[in-house]
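Field log, afternoon session.

UNIT: design team B
ACTIVITY: writing a sequence onto a fixed backbone
BACKBONE:
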């Protein structure tokens, strides 16, 4: 297959309650990849409206995610930070992909089943088509690498299937337009480290999520030191001491989760954590975790608040990023139109 220039793309929904899972599973990876790649980071507001969002809340959430990106260390001058709705090509390519993807593929998406719940007939058509828009987000930049948490794996596989089918269905036209044997790369998910699936602090069998009604289930990036301490102290655990080996975490989802969180915040592995804390009881381990979490998350929360106070700055970052993203996206759409046979 053709060689593609390496490029990173990823997105975060502006649906409020940005939490430790988003940070450890995705945003810390976004930050690290800036050293080695050209990166495009998107606030996916078109995805957010697949479920109802009050307009004023949506606007504030878009700015909150942008502030979180910047406060975490993403540099919007060296890389691209923008919101999806300012680049119309995302929606345009998503329509093309709606005509490439098969209904059978979308019927297998577990996230749709979870989010639509029992009343599937009443879910929006957008919620169902959500993954084709996600494929368009990535492929409109012909991005090759996509850092995400574990829960997005199936959507990434679908993106690869769509890219592959487009390349196959239009192979003759792709070649005759000078793009060789493939127009789209098959984007690779980057799902790595000890915290690719951070679980709820109240229930180790449930993912930490923005929509959990209990605020005690998650550490929000906006939490202050007191809130962090309270939530970690109240986190569910079991009565045993921490094991010294990974095998001892089997069947102990809450212990496993807290060890994974500690490891990720400390930039180490679960093995390192157990080497240090094996045999410790939870109250000692939790105290160390509070200290670490406050040390790492406290400054980010404070910086987020500061940035959120400057709306003009945030909006200027998003406009500048959108202008730069649009140039790249428009190039892809021109080629896609030629490949499809549209007159332009
Ligand atoms: P979203 O907004 O739900 O989550 C943003 C990122 O955070 C990761 N994540 C987690 N990682 C570890 N543990 C958790 N508990 C946890 N919860 C969330 C997600 O995996 C994600 O990486 N569909 C995407 C947004 C999107 C996107 C894209 C991503 C739209 N277009 C294109 C990549 C490429 C989503 O809903 O993420």
């Amino acid at each position: 297959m053709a060689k593609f220039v390496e490029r990173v793309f990823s997105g975060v929904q502006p649906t409020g309650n940005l939490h430790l899972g988003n940070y450890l599973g995705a945003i810390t990876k976004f930050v690290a990849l800036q050293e080695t790649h050209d990166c495009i980071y998107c606030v996916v507001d078109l995805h957010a409206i697949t479920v109802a969002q009050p307009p004023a809340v949506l606007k504030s959430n878009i700015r909150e995610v942008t502030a979180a990106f910047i406060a975490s260390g993403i540099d919007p001058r060296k890389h691209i930070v923008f919101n999806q709705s300012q680049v119309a090509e995302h929606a345009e390519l998503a329509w093309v992909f709606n005509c490439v993807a098969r209904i059978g593929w979308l019927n297998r998406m577990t996230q749709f089943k979870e989010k639509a719940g029992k009343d599937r007939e009443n879910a929006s058509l957008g919620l169902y088509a959500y993954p084709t828009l996600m494929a368009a987000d990535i492929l409109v930049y012909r991005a090759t690498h996509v850092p995400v948490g574990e829960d997005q794996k199936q959507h990434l596989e679908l993106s690869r299937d769509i890219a592959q089918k487009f390349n196959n269905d239009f192979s003759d036209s792709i070649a005759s337009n000078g793009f060789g044997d493939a127009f789209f790369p098959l984007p690779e998910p980057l799902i790595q480290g000890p915290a690719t699936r951070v679980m709820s602090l109240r229930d180790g069998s449930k993912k930490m999520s923005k929509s959990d009604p209990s605020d005690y289930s998650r550490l929000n990036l906006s939490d202050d030191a007191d809130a962090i301490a309270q939530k970690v102290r109240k986190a569910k655990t079991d009565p045993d001491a921490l094991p010294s080996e990974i095998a001892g975490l089997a069947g102990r989802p809450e212990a496993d989760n807290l060890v994974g969180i500690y490891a990720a915040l400390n930039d180490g592995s679960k093995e390192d954590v157990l080497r240090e804390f094996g045999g410790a009881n939870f109250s000692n381990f939790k105290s160390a975790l509070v200290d670490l979490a406050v040390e790492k998350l406290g400054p980010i929360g404070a910086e987020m608040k500061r940035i959120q106070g400057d709306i003009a700055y945030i909006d200027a970052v998003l406009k500048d990023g959108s202008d730069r993203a649009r140039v790249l996206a428009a190039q892809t759409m021109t080629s896609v139109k030629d490949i499809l046979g549209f007159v332009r």
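LOG NOTE: The mean pLDDT is 97.
NEXT ACTIVITY: expression trials, pending approval
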